[in-house]
C-alpha cells in the first residue's frame, strides 16, 4: 500500500519533465518529511501532520506547473491581443464573404430557399468553428513554444498611424449624389432599352401596363428620399423606417418579377452564350441575389448609423485602423 | 475592499521573496529551513511557491546546490553564488531607491507630518 506522501509525490511528478523527476522526488520528499516532523514536534499525530503538510503544499498539479515553469494559461497576455484581432477579423470579414459566396453558388445551382438558408447556417457554423479552432490552436502552439526572441518577433509594433479614422455621423454628400444619379440612370436605361434600340427590348414590354411605370415612380421616390435625407442632415429611427420602406417598394416587386419570369422579354434571346448553359436562368438568379443583398445591406447600414447617432458615437471609416499582420 | 487590499499587497510583495532568499542563502540552507527562516522574518511565502522558485534561481545561476547525505535524511542545500549576491545587492539598491522616492513624494505632497 502506498502512503499519502507517495501518492502526492507521484501525482506531482507525473507532470514534471522526466530528467528533473529524480532530483525533485528526493527534494520534495525531504521537504514534506521536514514539515511533518515540525508538526509532530509541536504535538500533532503523525497522520494528521502528513495531511496538514500536504494541504499546505496544495494542488500537486499546480506544484508541477511551478516546477516545470509552465504558464497555466492557454493564450497569455503576450499573444492575446493578436489572437483577438485576428479572430475578429476572420469572423467579421472573411466568414461573411465565404458565406455569401456559398449562398450565391447555391442560388445558381438550385435556388431553393430552404437549401439556401440551410447552406448558409451550416457554412456559418462549420467555417466559423474551424476558423476559431485553428486560429486558437496556432496561438496555443506559439504560446507553448514561442519563448525568447521569437516572442518579440510577433509583437505588433503599434504606431499612431494604426488608429482608425472617425467621421462625424452626418449624411455623406457623395452617397446622396450617387443616390440621386443612380435612379435617374436606371429610369433612363429602362426607357432607352424600350424605345432607343432598333432591336427587341430586353425587358418584358407587357409590364409597361403597370410595373415599369411603378418602378419609375419608385425610383423617383428613391431619389427624393436622398434629397430629403440630405436636408435632414442626420440619421435616426424615422430615417431607418423611411429608408427601409423606399428600398422595399422597389426591391420586392423587382425580385417578384424576376422570380416569376416576368422581368425579361420572352422575345429576347440574345443572352451572352456561355457554352450553352442556361444563361438567362443564371443571370436572373444573380440579379435576385444582388438586389436582395444590396437592399439588406443598405437597410442595415442605415439602421446602424441611426443607432450610432442616437448614442452620439462617431462612426469608424471603413478600411481604416486595421492592423496589418505583415 | 479586503480583496482590493490583498491584490495590491500581492503586487507589491511580488519579487521580494527572491531578494530575501538570495540574502538568506548566503549561509547554506535547504528548502524547509529557508521556509522557516523567511516566515520568522515576516515574509508570507508558500512552500509550493518557494520550492520551485529555488530550482529556478539555481537554473539561472544565482544559487548553487549540493546534496548533503551526512544525516539520516538527505537534503539539498542551496547557497547564493557570487552572481546571485551581486543581483541581490542591485535589487536591494532598487528597493531603497523606491523607498526614498516614495518618501520624497509624500513629503512634497504634504501628507507626512
Automatic annotation (TrEMBL), chain A:
The keyword Cell membrane does not apply. Keywords: Membrane, Transmembrane, Transmembrane helix. InterPro entries: Perm_prefix_1. Coiled coil: none annotated. The chain crosses the membrane at residues 86-108, 120-142, 171-191, 211-229, 241-259, 279-300. The keyword Nucleus does not apply. This is Uncharacterized protein. It comes from Paractinoplanes tereljensis.
TrEMBL record, chain B:
Gene3D superfamilies: Winged helix-like DNA-binding domain superfamily/Winged helix DNA-binding domain. It holds the Pfam family PadR. Coiled coil: none annotated. Signal peptide: none annotated. Residues 26-86 form the Transcription regulator PadR N-terminal domain. PANTHER family: PADR-FAMILY TRANSCRIPTIONAL REGULATOR (PTHR33169), TRANSCRIPTIONAL REGULATOR RV3488 (PTHR33169:SF14). This is PadR family transcriptional regulator. It comes from Paractinoplanes tereljensis.
